[in-house]
Design a protein that fits this description.
Elements (H helix, E strand, L loop, with lengths): L26 E8 L3 H11 L5 E4 L13 E3 H10 L2 H7 L1 E3 L1 E6 L2 E7 L11 E3 L2 H12 L5 E4 L3 E7 L4 E7 L2 E12 L6 H5 L4 E5 L4 E7 L8 E5 L8 E7 L3 E7 L6 H4 L2 H12 L6 E8 L2 E5 L3 E2 L2 E3 L5 E2 L7 H21 L6 H27 L4 H14 L3 H4 L40 E4 L2 E4 L8 E6 L13 H5 L5 E6 L9 E3 L5 H5 L7 E4 L5 E5 L4 H11 L8
Parallel strand pairs: 1-2, 1-11, 2-8, 5-14, 11-20, 24-25, 25-26
Antiparallel strand pairs: 3-7, 4-7, 5-6, 9-10, 10-11, 12-18, 13-16, 13-17, 14-15, 15-16, 18-21, 19-20, 22-23, 24-27, 27-28
Helix pairs in contact: 1-4, 1-8, 2-3, 8-9
């Protein structure tokens, strides 16, 4: 840690008595968020910076201890950009795109998670969770309409038809408050879920892993290294990641019979690390934990006015970095929908799409996480024989490398079956299908370098692809037509020298944007506020766009 840097693990936040504790009747708040982890902070910031007053409650007075979640994916970094903390995360984090897979002491192959250029953010950064929470907290404190109360524990939840009533325990006793909406982002042991007598069901895997965060000076590159059956830890697996501050994360597979308390003792951990690094290696243990992992989720993430997000709603094994990343993406999906329902822009039914889209995402993550875990820790002779044969073939056969699963790494879910999508009526190629997270690309605005996603605001975004010479301008929408979208959508005009009133002109100087969106002059995209594709066409048709906008807002009936 550099001199003068904040030590977020040592911060302690004072409990402060709230005026709500002295009122005769419960005070009513628009939104209460339970849990000041990455997911709760992300949801609270997203709502607050869009003008929604938010009360954030946390039962502790500290940020997380130990590194915990460390791998933050490209999509999460793009969300963090919109929340105002993306650059801080990248500046502090260890950037990596490359992974390597070893069998015993031999490198089988390496892979690049971001092989193409022209992206603002890397495939992943490694950054301790307490930094992420600290940066989000710093941002939250800048927002005057976001209040945080430490040592305020939710003891009881009464989920009514028109409000949610909460009993809050504090060091000074219990008080009540009401809210229009409650976001439960209070972790895998959610007090909200427990109070509502709801369950999270799934599978627990019969294996244990040791996490050792080790501070040392090492010559390892900033890559993800995964060993199957290494000589320093035979018949098991090991994972190595670099973190900031000369800290390295090492995961050792232990087996189901390992004693968790015994394995956390330094006299057991240090020899394992020495076996990897060498007997003369100099290092210090920063944090040690033993975990048994599982995959589970709630049946539904929406229960009336209570909405569950992050680990309170679902959990996965850590292979693939799907926990924190999927939780932040929950918040990204939920915040704009809740805001528009509260504003009256969208019907209450829009929140049902949060449930359907993010349940689908959780199922996808659980499936990938389960497959990874089954490959890494086979539980039968047949599965072990398949795993070992696949690894041997992967040395020389490219096709076998696609079968090796050392943790399929997190990618954003494509909401292919979402009711908010407008199906294609024109032919397109590429990944930008309705429901996909929008791809970034470099652009120029009045000669200044910029990035496409940074121009997409908190509203819907209408993207119209022109051409560098202004051809086909007669077929472009009129100012009157564009004005119809002024209150609900920001309009971007791509790669043209002809100005169009009401549009911000972006120049796709490298051609990446057109290539990634399979665009030609006249192509139109409608993007949601969470930067997922809602619809696309080969030409501008105001009736089709209006209908797609209504559909993406969860409205039924003829377009408004």
């Amino acid at each position: 840690m550099t001199a003068g840097a904040t030590d977020y693990q040592k911060l302690q936040f004072d409990y402060t008595r709230s005026p709500d504790q002295s009122t005769a009747q419960p005070v009513r708040h628009p939104v209460v968020v339970a849990g000041a982890g990455p997911v709760g902070l992300a949801a609270a910031i997203d709502l607050a910076q869009s003008g929604v007053p938010v009360l954030l409650l946390d039962d502790d007075d500290r940020l997380s201890t130990g590194s915990r979640a460390i791998c933050f994916a490209k999509r999460t970094l793009e969300i963090a950009d919109r929340l105002g903390v993306g650059q801080r995360m990248v500046d502090k984090g260890v950037t990596w795109n490359t992974g390597k897979v070893f069998l015993r002491d031999e490198l089988l192959y390496s892979f690049d998670l971001l092989p193409e250029r022209g992206h603002r953010r890397p495939a992943f950064i490694n950054l301790q969770q307490y930094y992420v929470e600290g940066y989000l907290l710093d941002r939250a404190r800048e927002l005057s309409n976001l209040e945080i109360r430490w040592k305020n524990k939710i003891a009881d939840v009464q989920n009514g038809s028109d409000r949610v009533r909460l009993d809050i325990e504090t060091p000074e006793g219990t008080y009540c408050l009401d809210c229009d909406w409650l976001i439960a982002a209070d972790g895998g042991r959610s007090a909200v879920r427990r109070s509502m007598q709801l369950e999270s069901k799934g599978q627990t895997f019969r294996d244990r892993f040791l996490i050792a965060d080790v501070r040392m000076n090492a010559a390892f590159p900033a890559e993800r290294w995964f060993w199957f059956d290494p000589p320093f830890h035979p018949k098991q697996s090991v994972l190595l990641h670099q973190q900031p501050d000369n800290v390295w994360r090492i995961d050792f597979q232990l087996g189901w019979d390992a004693d968790p308390e015994l394995e956390k003792q330094p006299e057991r951990v240090i020899p394992r690390v020495q076996a990897l690094l060498g007997i003369d290696a100099k290092f210090e243990l920063e944090w040690v934990s033993v975990y048994t992992f599982g995959c589970q989720r709630m049946e539904k993430f929406r229960h009336g006015r209570v909405l569950f997000a992050g680990d309170s709603a679902h959990g996965v094994s850590p292979f693939g970095a799907r926990g924190a990343n999927s939780g932040v993406q929950d918040a990204d999906n939920l915040a704009w929908k809740l805001r528009m329902v509260m504003e009256g822009t969208a019907p209450d039914a829009l929140l049902d799409s949060y449930d359907s889209e993010r349940v689908c995402a959780a199922d996808e993550n659980i499936l990938n996480s389960t497959r990874s875990t089954d490959f890494i820790t086979p539980k039968s002779d047949a599965s072990r024989a398949f795993r070992d044969a696949t690894l041997e073939l992967a040395r020389d056969c490219t096709f076998a490398r696609r079968l090796v699963n050392s943790g399929r790494l997190s990618v954003p879910t494509v909401y292919r079956a979402s009711p908010l999508n407008t199906p294609d009526t024109d032919a397109f190629e590429g990944a930008m299908v309705p429901g996909a997270a929008a791809a970034d690309a470099p652009v120029r605005i009045d000669g200044t370098d910029a990035w496409f996603l940074n121009q997409c605001g908190s509203l819907f975004t209408l993207v119209i692809f022109g051409d560098a010479h202004g051809k086909n301008a007669s077929s472009w929408p009129s100012q009157v037509e564009l004005a119809k979208f002024a209150t609900s959508a920001k309009t971007l005009l791509i790669a043209t020298t002809v100005p169009l009133p009401g549009c911000q002109i972006l120049h796709d100087f490298a051609g990446h944007l057109a290539q990634r969106y399979d665009a030609r002059p006249g192509t139109v995209y409608l993007l949601r506020p969470d930067q997922h594709v809602a619809a696309r066409w080969r030409g501008f048709d105001i009736a089709s766009i209006a209908a797609a906008l209504d559909r993406a807002l969860g409205k039924s009936g003829p377009p408004s």
